[in-house]
From TrEMBL:
CDD domains: NAT_SF (cd04301). Residues 9-169 form the N-acetyltransferase domain. This is GNAT family N-acetyltransferase. One of its GO terms (molecular function) is acyltransferase activity, transferring groups other than amino-acyl groups. The keyword Transferase applies. Keywords: Transferase. It comes from Erythrobacter aureus. Pfam families: Acetyltransf_1.
């Protein structure tokens, strides 16, 4: 029910001191989708409530990072952002990446529902993301569905990239 840190198991808030490690993990997990360190630093600074790291055996072994954004404007790879929109409508899940040794242990199953809950509680209408590699089936398990992105928005993410959204019930949201 809460967006506080309790109940996140091995996950904790990402701090500025984690950015180098996070960037290193992104290079290891997504070698064909390089993003600059500044991309992670910007987002952590702009929206700390959407930035988490996974601790395993005393080191950071994964991260999850995202922020309020506009669903119609999925961000290009390696895009810097200077500010968040005044009227965001989605929680844009920029990336979730775990080192191989940290996978299959249920860590994603903790942080993804947390992000979804956080988005709902902060009044956003959806969670959206660009699924890369073969991750779309993983996201569909949480209720994400394929969504049309306008021409060119997925360029740079690879041929198999998919734009996925999880839209909340407008009735339950009291909007639209
Ligand atoms: C995708 C990823 C984040 C999943 O993390 P994880 O900690 O291994 O996932 P979990 O152990 O929490 O699994 C949650 C559920 O999803 C399932 N799952 C995991 N990976 C899956 C996949 N690729 N396709 C379908 N289901 C998957 C698990 O079996 C589990 O199901 P269960 O609850 O019935 O047991 C992780 O494998 C990863 O970092 N991959 C590389 C980076 C990546 O592709 N990130 C997505 C970028 S958009």
């Amino acid at each position: 029910m809460s967006t506080q840190m309790g109940g996140l198991g091995p996950w904790r808030a990402m701090g500025t001191g984690d950015i180098d490690r996070v960037h290193g993990i992104s290079e290891a997990v997504h070698p064909t989708l390089p993003e600059n360190r500044a991309v992670f630093a910007d987002r952590q600074a702009l929206y700390p409530a959407g930035a988490f790291v996974l601790e395993r055996d005393g080191t950071v072994a994964g991260y999850c990072i995202g922020h309020p954004w506009l669903e119609a404007e999925p961000l290009p790879l390696d895009a810097r952002i200077e500010r968040l929109p005044v009227r965001p409508d989605t929680f844009y899940l920029h990336d979730l990446a775990l080192l191989p040794g940290a996978r299959g242990l249920g860590a994603a199953g903790i942080i993804v529902p947390h992000i979804i809950r956080h988005a709902r509680e902060t009044g956003l209408a959806s969670v959206s993301l660009i699924a890369v590699a073969d991750s779309a089936p993983f996201w569909r398990r949480f209720g994400f569905r394929d969504t049309q992105a306008s021409e060119g928005k997925l360029a740079g993410y690879g041929a198999d990239a998919r734009f996925l959204t999880l839209r909340f019930d407008p009735e339950a949201q009291g909007r639209h």
